[in-house]
Amino acid sequence: MACRCLRVDQLDAHVLDSEIRSIAQDSVDDVVNQMPLWVARIFEKLRPELKVTLEAVLWTHRFSRGASPGQEQMDIAYAGYTPKLITSHFMVEVIVPYLTRRMSELSGRIDISRMYSKIEAIYELGSLLHFLYFLRSGGHSTITESIFSLRNWNNHQPTISSINYDTQNRELMWHAFRDVILLTYPFIEKARQRIVKKQKLDRKFTSSIGSSDIECVVCDKPSVIPMVGQKCGHVACYTCIATSRNMTCPLCSENAEPMEFLAKKLKNPILIE
Amino acid sequence: MSTTIRASQLASSISPKTEEKQPSVFDIIAQENLATSIRPALQHLVKYLAFFKPKTFLSVHRNFDEYYIIFDLILQNHYLRNYGASFTENFYSMKRIASGTGNPPNDGRERIMSLITLVGWPYVENKLNQLYDRLKEVYECRSWSSINGMKAKCQKMFVIIWPYIKTALKAVKSALQLAYILNRSSIHSPWLYFSGVILKHLTPEDLEAFNAVPLHLQTGYQISRGTLNEHIHLRFFNRIWRFILGLPGIVSRLFAYGLFFVQFLDYMYNTDLAKLTKTGLDGAIPSPPHKMIISESEILSLDTNKCPICLKKRVNDTALFVSGYVFCYTCINQYVNTYNKCPVTGCPANVQHLIRLFV
């Protein structure tokens, strides 16, 4: 234990821990999705228990290494983190929320559920205030850490080590790509809309079309109860243009072309006897 | 999954590398994500080129799997021989070392096994998936009762067994990944076990070794023989040769940056940016106007349970969504297949527009 660690390292450790939890959960869900339907239904029913079991497996890392995976990544650990303290921490952090939520769900009584929601809301508010105090003044990053008097310490003295240019290059490229996308996206979108609109203006209904789909100019899917412009010939779904309140062509909005049902434009069909 | 890329940069940029430890699970998932991005990106590019220049690129588009496996073999072989890692592993600052000896797999059995697991197995798995989809569709159209002959029995056995094999492989991979997170395993995937290698971070000595120029190509190399004119010629050819040797590195580096951009685009579209571009119907839909659609009064005078085609009680109700009328399934299916339009309104239609009503 060299010295107390920074707040930003503790926050990064929490982010990494939650990311590891989601990776493990996604792996298990991926396997369950491949299984037959009755097995998947059983797993869906037992989802909270499965989640607690997975959490317990991940918490074994603290017993063997003295820190969580995220803390180990950030090279920090709690001072005096004994196995007994780890067990108590696990009980308060994982088991107590699971038991209270499960009991309120299984009891079926509305007043217990409502009381549980109130207690949860109060706890969330307390956590938020505690977190704001932590951001302002340091100290313990979560309420459970305050309860158990756990503080994060750096395992080694932080030094200015050799610069990893590969990682910095990737970080710089990531931010450069983000800035390029945010800068050019409006122009790309405007150009794309102009091209699409030009294509749609050329797409008109003619009686020579035999078996092709009539695509709606608004939703780009086959028209449901197609409406056609009386002069311009553009086709749209009834529901798509009904939202425009005045039943006019969405492409020729400046001319306010009225639309009618496509069926009225067609000649009478021949019924099979 | 896309936030894992950001987490890998967070973990690798901050943690000090005082000792050589195994890469974090975020780096590994990010490089696997980059590896799975190569093939769809190239396929999309080839499809785009085939659309504009059919004479040149259509054959490439049709046989994309075979062309891609050749390209992938060249790429991974180059990286395994020169950098001791696959293409995406090198991009994320990792290398492979043999489990027994601790040497890089530049030559020998580890490189062959690495090439098989990196290039061969994805190709085989893709072909097996396509075969499974095709056979499953065939046996759903026909029934299983028409099975006879050894080949058909083998095909049926394959259709039954392949999903279980895939599930087992995925379960093994998940278990190894969890063990890797908990530092109980040095490998995160069964394919690394088959290749006989483990992953490590690159060290500064490795980075210096990559940039080493061969001795006889260095500029300051003294030549003990020859005249001044011969010396100038030799130096010129050394520069040309050094440039040619450096060209694959430059091209592969640019290729890596392009793929990183693809990965970034995938990340952006899976997060908040996609929500800004989505458009949907909002507001209530008003009731339809009461207008006369057809002029045939006998259609409207029918009972609501009659079919407009056969004028009898409907069997297997089917709606035609281009007009909204409901018919017998056999009547409308036959009519649409014959005339390609709605019998009441005349709107163009095909069998894709039939909606079976199960009420």
Could you walk me through the main structural features you see in this protein, from its secondary elements to its overall organization?
The complex is a heterodimer of chains A (273) and B (359). Chain A contains 10 helices and 5 strands, in the order H-H-H-H-E-H-H-H-E-H-E-E-H-E-H. Chain A has helices at 7-34, 37-45, 47-65, 69-73, 83-107, 110-137, 143-148, 165-202, 238-242, 262-265; strands spanning 76-78, 152-154, 226-229, 235-237, 259-261. A 3-stranded antiparallel β-sheet of chain A has the order 4-3-5. A two-stranded antiparallel sheet of chain A has the order 1-2. Chain B is mainly alpha-helical. Chain B has helices spanning 3-14, 25-52, 54-62, 64-83, 87-91, 109-141, 150-181, 190-195, 204-210, 228-270, 272-277, 297-300, 329-339; strands at residues 94-98, 197-201, 317-320, 326-328, 354-356. In chain B, the strands form 2 sheets. In chain B, strands 4-3-5 form a 3-stranded antiparallel β-sheet. Chain B has a two-stranded antiparallel sheet with strand order 1-2. In chain B, helix 2 (25-52) packs across helix 3. Mean pLDDT of chain B is 73; it is low at 14-19 and 275-296. Chains A and B meet through helix 1, helix 3, helix 4, helix 8 and helix 9 of A and helix 1, helix 2, helix 7, helix 10 and helix 13 of B.
What's the layout of helices and strands?
The complex is a heterodimer of chains A (273) and B (359).
Chain A: H1 7-34, H2 37-45, H3 47-65, H4 69-73, E1 76-78, H5 83-107, H6 110-137, H7 143-148, E2 152-154, H8 165-202, E3 226-229, E4 235-237, H9 238-242, E5 259-261, H10 262-265
Antiparallel strand pairs in A: 1-2, 3-4, 3-5
Chain B: H1 3-14, H2 25-52, H3 54-62, H4 64-83, H5 87-91, E1 94-98, H6 109-141, H7 150-181, H8 190-195, E2 197-201, H9 204-210, H10 228-270, H11 272-277, H12 297-300, E3 317-320, E4 326-328, H13 329-339, E5 354-356
Antiparallel strand pairs in B: 1-2, 3-4, 3-5
Helix pairs in contact in B: 1-2, 2-3, 2-10, 4-6, 6-7
